[in-house]
Amino acid sequence: MAAPDYVPNRTAAADRHYVSPPRRPQPWMADRPAELSDGQPVGAGLGVPGPDQGYALRLARRFEAELLLGAGEQAADAVAGCVGVALRRAALFGRAPVTADLEIAFRVFGFLPPALDESLAAWRCELFCGVSNPHHYAEARQVADSVLEAALRMSPGEVEAACAADRSALLSAPPLLSSDPR
After folding, report:
1. Which residues contact 147 (CB under 8 A, 6 or more apart)?
2. What is the pLDDT along the chain (182 residues), one digit of tens a residue?
3. pTM for this structure?
4. How far apart are CA 82 and CA 147, in angstroms?
5. Which residues contact 121 (CB under 8 A, 6 or more apart)?
6. Which residues does residue 147 pair with via DSSP β-bridges, in sequence order?
7. SS3 assignment for the chain
8. How far apart are CA 170 and CA 162, in angstroms?
9. Rounded CA gap, 64 and 76, in Å?
10. Distance CA 160, CA 106 (A)
């Protein structure tokens, strides 16, 4: 049965949920003052961007009970320094941090078992001193940059074996260990 003319009629236009905006004649340009027109800057002290980097702090809490700390070392400094190394490794692979990134970072500096080397702990204490303080960003970057990229590309098992053989081969500024003849 047909409806009278005075009754509203639903049309196909009323059923439409999305209407595209009018066409823009000019393309969008990055012309705002803070736009990065050439991409992410690269250089000393700028760090390495990566996705979901805050998750590394949550993962680091899993290792706090296992850390081997020497005299004068603080767990907060160890975590802050090693999180930077783990983030650098994760960004190298273009992904968010995982447990293996933190395990490698803690193992390279000798914070994980089997045993604590006293000469390594003394060197570590000087390197990591105060890096948990937000005002010591340069020192935290120095810790993160002290691990060679080749070491960051290794698996946790390879890093453990390399640490047992010669830990200084993984670091750009190796510590003077007791086995060192100098």
Report:
1. 85, 88, 105, 108, 170, 171, 172
2. 677 888 877 666 566 677 777 777 777 776 778 777 777 787 777 777 888 889 999 999 999 999 988 888 999 999 999 999 999 999 999 999 999 999 999 999 999 988 777 888 888 889 999 999 999 988 999 999 899 999 999 999 999 999 888 888 898 876 654 444 33
3. 0.73
4. 10
5. 68, 69, 70, 71, 73, 110
6. 171
7. CCCCCCCCCCCHHHHCCCCCCCCCCCCCCCCCCCCCCCCCCCCCCCCCCCCCCCHHHHHHCCCHHHCCCCCCCCHHHHHHHHHHHHHHHHHHCCCCCCHHHHHHHHHHCCCCCCCCCHHHHHHHHHHHCCCCCCCCHHHHHHHHHCECHHHHCCCHHHHHHHHHHHHHHHECCCCCCCCCCC
8. 8
9. 9
10. 10
Token digits of residue 12? 């196909």
